[in-house]
Amino acid sequence: MAQDRIPTSRWARAAKVGRLAATQGAKQTATRMANVTRSDEAADAALARRQVETAEQIVAALGTMKGAAMKLGQVMSFLDVGLVPEEYREEFQAKLAQLRDAAPKVSFKDMKKVLESEYGEKLDRVFASFDPVPVAAASIGQVYKAHLDDGRCVAVKVQYPGVDAAVRADLQNLGMILRLMKRIAPGLDPQELGAEIRGRVEEELDYELEAQNQRTLARIFRGHPFIVVPDVLTDLSHQRVVVTEYVQGTRFEEFKTLDDAARDRLGEIIFRFYFGCMYRHHQFSGDPHPGNCLLLEDGRMAFLDFGLFKRIPRQVAEYELQTQRFGVEGRGRELIEHLHRGGWIGDPKFYDEAECATRRCRPSTSSAAGWRCSRWRCSDSCA
Predict the structure, then answer these.
(1) Three-state SS for 2?
(2) How many Å from the N-terminal Cα to the C-terminal Cα in the chain?
(3) Beta carbons of 102 and 62 less than 8 angstroms apart
(4) Beta 301-303 vs 309-311: how paired, if at all?
(5) Are the beta carbons of 205 and 311 closer than 8 angstroms?
(6) Within a domain: residue 363?
(7) Which of 67, 88, 167, 318 has the fewest CB atoms inside 10 Å of its own CB, making it the most exposed?
């Protein structure tokens, strides 16, 4: 069913999240009250089922809102952050897989207005043919299939009308949305997650920036034996429209059912693409969810959607790679020292040997900078 309007008011979008939070809070309270008369085993089962229902409803509701709220819902639909007990995880993932491929559609009438506004002329003067039925729908825009006068088949990604206002409203409401998500994923750090989201999501509204990101990776992987990044048609791409080479293939929910050997191969391709971009090229897609990869007929994997994108300094990439090397090689002591130096563990200070001895630190860790003293290593609190 077409959704003709995206709520863009901060208050309208906050109200939806607020109602959802209140409803789920009341249901969880009711379950706990009912558990008073249940056995421990029955109470645990009831709470687990309520947690599953809460997670499904929260993620599904966010997944229909478009904008940043939908982006969070999509991420939570596939990310293993302990949303539900392990015994319900497969069922949960199956129900929410539809968020990746079957998001509610916005009518073509409204999307056509965006296209003609960007091009400044009628659509039939830009494309030889244009299929009004979208082939994909996501958090920020919808994708259509079209043909050019020279016969080339292209994918046309169009931004939803008004979605920029919806995204900015979501960013204003981000604290409320993250508190709601923390209800089903207590391990999340709302402040860290919120800071990263604010820094990346508004960039996703600029399709010219997305086109630039995709052009960069398409150039890097051109001619690659098993990775494909579709080429961008720069002259047809604008701030709210990006046009790329059209690729067609098997989606994640289908190819994940292949045999072990095939899945191992595809898993390695996906790993090599995302981590290779990060550590070899120091730039990568920040949206590596299953809806953004297609298995082509010739066995190559095509990667899509580079709106959420990040570049990292070489030294950051090298630090993370060294962390992984220490772990793989079983060099535990060096790994701990490395994590301390990077600020990931504790707040270490260095002393010379004599000073450290007076603080009764265990002399089991040393470095070129001197003896290391930190709370977790000391018999006394001395950091």
Answers:
(1) strand
(2) 61
(3) no
(4) unpaired
(5) no
(6) yes
(7) 318
Q: Most distant CA pair in the chain: distance in Å?
A: 82
Q: What pLDDT does residue 195 have?
A: 65
Query: 310-332, pLDDT tens digit by residue?
Result: 889 999 999 999 999 999 999 99
Among 263, 292, 311, identify where a domain stops. 311
- What is the crossing angle of helices 40-62 and 174-184, to 10°? 150
Do 89 and 119 share a domain, yes or no?
Answer: no
Q: Are residues 65 and 81 in the same domain?
A: yes
Amino acid at 152: R
- What is the DSSP track for 342-373? TTSSS--EEE-HHHHHHTTB-TT-EETTEEEE
Domain count, the chain: 3
103-117, 179-193, 222-236: least confident range: 179-193
Which residues are identified as catalytic?
Answer: 287
| DSSP string covering 83-122 | -S-GGGHHHHHHHHTHHHH-PPBPPHHHHHHHHHHHHTS-
CA 291 – CA 296 distance, rounded (Å): 14
**Nearest one of 117, 111, 167, 118 to 135, comparing CA atoms:** 111
Q: Is 380 helix (H, G, I), strand (E, B) or coil?
A: coil
Residues 373/351, Cβ–Cβ less than 8 Å: yes
CA dihedral 248, 252, 258, 264 (to 10 degrees): 110
d(CA 137, CA 104): 7
Q: Which string of b and e fits 95-117 if b means at least 16 CB within 10 Å? A: ebbebbeebeebebebbbebbee
What residues make up the domain containing 370? 346-383
Looking at residue 265, what is its pLDDT? 97
**pLDDT attached to residue 355:** 46
